[in-house]
Amino acid sequence: MRFSSILHSTSLKRQQLLDIALVLALLPHLLILKLPMLIYLTLALIFIIKKKDSKVVLISFAVLGVIAIALSFMSEYNFSNFSRLLVFISLLITLLSWAVVLQRLTRQINFYLTISPAMLMILSFFFYNSIGMLFYALFTLFIFTLLLLYERMQSSLSNALRINALLYLFSLPIVLLLFITFPRISYKNAKFGFKAEQIKRTGHDGTMYLDSNSLLVPSPRLVMEVDFEKGIPSDRALYFRGSALYMDKGTQWIQDMSSKSSSGKVQSEGGSIIYTVNLYPHQKKGLYLLDLPLRHPYKSLLDGDLIVRSYTNINETYLYEGRSALTLEIPEENRAKLDIALQVDQQRDPRSYEALQKSIDLNADDLSKANQLLKFFSSLDLAYSLKPKAIDLEHPVDSFLFDSKVGYCVHFASAFASSARMVGLPSRIITGYKADRANAINNYLLIKEADAHAWVELYIKEKGWIRFEPTSTARRILTPNNDPNLSNSYTTASLQLSTMQKIFKQANLYYMYTRYVINTWVLQYSRSKQLALLNDLLTNTIFLLKFLASIAGFIIMCIALFVLLRKKRCKDELLCEMQVLVQLLKNKGFIRHQGDRKSTRLNSSHVALSRMPSSA
What's residue 419's pLDDT? Predict the structure, then answer.
């Protein structure tokens, strides 16, 4: 009777440990399972807690589970937007959850229930491919092995935790070696439904507004991450093209829909920049490449305006490689495109037209006229502000240049492009992102929604399209309250706040960089990257030495932590003081056997001391 009661208590303990593992494995699936299955799992949890496990309950939950599965897959799933593989995996997860519930209600532990947590965790990787899921999987695996050790060893939780940590440290070098060398399987254009961050970012869709819909997103939300192969270019080169706008509609600028794909005649005169872009979803087709792109990603088009568009909308995180030129040999633009780039309504903004006719030498060459136009804008005492007053959309250029005199990149670019056309210079507006090197570390660059920008390109004879930055002609930068009298005195508190902001910004930058490295070299460690790594190891001696030094440092760190954790820390102060003595007795042949009581050990120690010679 006593033996059976002990066995029953052990069974309950094992069942509780298994419940913890099942809860950890099911947590990621709560965002995947549909409402009928969530209700089903909630009801099952209530019955399991209340320990109601009759035959009627079991049959009822078997029927309810079938109904919940049918409802989930007949009404909740949108099969038109769901891959076949994901439908199969979702069905597999749902059936597995149903079977776990039924098995758990029987309160019996078998092989199937034991491996269910591992199966559920493996299936979750088909839906989640993120840094958060990576760390959650490592944490869950650690807890799984800890629970197993705790149940098998029948010892204290702290001892099981120490042994588990030792096993992890011992296995880390082996896992690292297998990760680097184990053959990767590549599937061309395969998408296994990995779920990336789905928050919609801003994108450039070929339209720029001057009204309340104008391009202004002062948000720190990440748009893309760029990893340069050989260092980050200067600030003057960090322009990422999004769309080219030709047609001035008064309240908005739109792209020329007749723009054809590139003929392939664009050639680089100098060197080129190679980089990798990790673009976050914006539900549009635009792909952003550095001025001026020479290569575009697979399944995308590079048009005559050097704008790259994907065949499909970017609905999930997209990693692609780009190559851009430092200088380009641009073929002569076709006459029809230049005619569109000269279209302007001179009667709409009469004051601007008259002032330009007086200020610009219309007989000068194109480049001289462009430089004169920049000086004209600089002379108007324009101000930059993220909160400008609304302009008169009936006369947008006149209103901005002579009335409000306050705006941001959209207003500067629109007024400059229209003014260029008034003096005979073909112009177009380019929208995209102007990156800031302050958001860079090593070769890694962050680009945020707040970096959205608009600039102007003018067509200069015998030179082609040249970028101009009209926003740089602003003479003042106003505060958010549009107060031009910005005080130069700062309190100590404001300086401290500014310092803290810088610290947090730098810490966030290092965090994002670490996350990007993990995402690139762990989550997206493909066959091509593995071959590239092995090729560098075989051909680059310096890289090989750095790699071996890193591996050696990692192994030494693991060994040091292993040795540190391997030493048992005694809780009794007296026993800690006697450890040296006990070790000495052990060397003399007095060994404590398994099952000896502490009092016996102390008595043995006393006897040993009496037997030892005084010299000892």
Answer: 93
